[in-house]
## 1
Amino acid sequence: MAMMAMSAAQGVAQVKAQKQQAKAQAAAQSAASVREMQRQQMTMRSERMQQGDEETTIAQEQLKANREAEEAISTTTVAGEAAGVSGISAGLSIQDYERKNAEYQGALAMQTRMNDSARRLSLANSGQQYVSNMGQINKPIAQPDYLGTALGTAQNMMGAYQSGQLSKQATANANLTRTAWGGAQTNARKGLQLGAQGIYNAGSAVRGAGVRRDQAGVTAQRGDLNSLRIQGIR
């Protein structure tokens, strides 16, 4: 019974341990999920801040290039008018400034598009990494195996019961063996006692025969003496 009770207690303790493990795993997953969300938010915030800095820098470059081009065109126009330069020559110089400014503005726009493409790719990779990390973190939590524990506990209790029965049977067999051995020892002692009694009786018989022989000899001697006395009288 004690072993069966111990098996039942072990089953209860196993279920309790499984519950505690599931609870601890859920808490760990929750904490890891929060950290992963914070990491993803910081990554996105950093990307947006970098985007803002790049856009501000490019906008400033665009304004600076436009201002420089306008100043160069104004200077060329005024200088040409003051020097009496023909309109064609001045117009060519102005067109050259406008072309260079347009090329520079196009390069800045291309850089903006490249930065946007790289940023979208980085955000997409970060999002995929976030989903993958969340999947790795939030794996299914193993719930307590009530059925398996109950079956295992029942098997252990049955084994304990069978062991107890075998122990009882072994004890009973041992008691029977001791009883039989005790009976054999008693019979042996009785046999020894009977043997000793037989030896004693045989000795007594031998001693009795010797006494009788002695008595017969004495009687014979007495008879001889009486015969001699009678002959002497005659």
Note: Residues 146-233 form the longest helix (88 residues).
## 2
Amino acid sequence: MKKLYRVFLWVREVAEKQRRRELIKKIAQRIYKEKELEDIQKRKENLSSQFGGEAQRFSLPAWYMAQFLQYIDWLREEENRKEFELKKLIDEEDAERRLYMEAKRGYDVAQRFVERKTAEERKNFLKKEEKLSDDFVLVELRKKKED
């Protein structure tokens, strides 16, 4: 029976560790997307401020300004796409966190169950040992009385 309890506990532990790995992977993906989004935002801000200064100091050709504005628009679209992907990853991370917490609870419950069963078995073993010891003492006492 002890092996069965150990296997049960091991299965729960493996499930909990797998969920933890999945959660860590989702967190890493979210952090990476946040950095990508931050880089795009910085690039857009730098280019916008740089372009504003250059446009005022120099008379730039219309084709150059049109290309620059198209690039800024593309950066905005990219920023929106990255924000959408980030929201999706945050939702996935939350779902994975719930699954991890459920697996963690399952492992904790299994651990307490195994500890309780082990304590019961130890208690029963001690009772049997005590009874055997008492029986042995009674047999010895009878032998002494008979002698």
Note: The chain has a mean pLDDT of 89.
## 3
Amino acid sequence: MAQRLKKLSFLNVLLVLIFLSWCVSAQAQTNWCEDATCKGCWLMDVDEDPLTDTSGNGNTIALKGAGEPNFTAVGQFGGGYIFDGNNDFGLVTGGDGSDFDPGTALFSMVMWLDSTVSDGGGTDIPFMAGVGGADEYGILLSDSSNSVRAFANTDGSADADSGVDIRGAGFTHVAGIRSATRTTDIWVDGVFKATDSHAATESIDITSNLAIGMQVSGILHFHGTMDEVAYFLGKVLDIFDINDIMDNGLVQAATGRTRRMF
């Protein structure tokens, strides 16, 4: 009996050590923007145009619109940008565009969204590469289901519908993933919500620039505030990665920025 208790005690200590090691490891991520697979990382912490690409790949985003998206000091981590839903958007003008052309590769896209429209006021697209109805991927807020969705396909016919209405809900973390099995997955606030296998065998070939705040063709403008946007090519962010980014920010450990808890 005593020997068994010693074994149990040892196992308990070992489990605690493993848990503590995982916690330290989870907090040790200092800068997701420096990950080798990060092709675009826009922190939106300062008032600037174009937006700096912190990944170092030169994929700066030029801000467009009558008044352009307006900087706000009240983002989820640091600052953010407010899009008016009428003509504000941003377009990647730096780089050569190849960073956002996945073909059959895996990829992940993450962002914080505070959609201020709560009345189902039209479909909004906060993040998109490609041309509507052709090869494309991105995140949209649907006016038919009032839910946030991720899409990645070659004909605009399908998406992963989270079933979660984020309009008027304050800042919400959204992640769209093209997984190892080439399904399109949607995560909301660190929780997996839905998957779509429509484009599992397709090559998504992007020939246009990546846009934030609208569909690339110039419609379906996003109405709300955006913060901490990043795109990873060749990487499937898992539950630990997504929650680390959500809880600690893309570069929080490196800069000491803190998450707004509202």
Note: Residues 2-27 form the longest helix (26 residues).
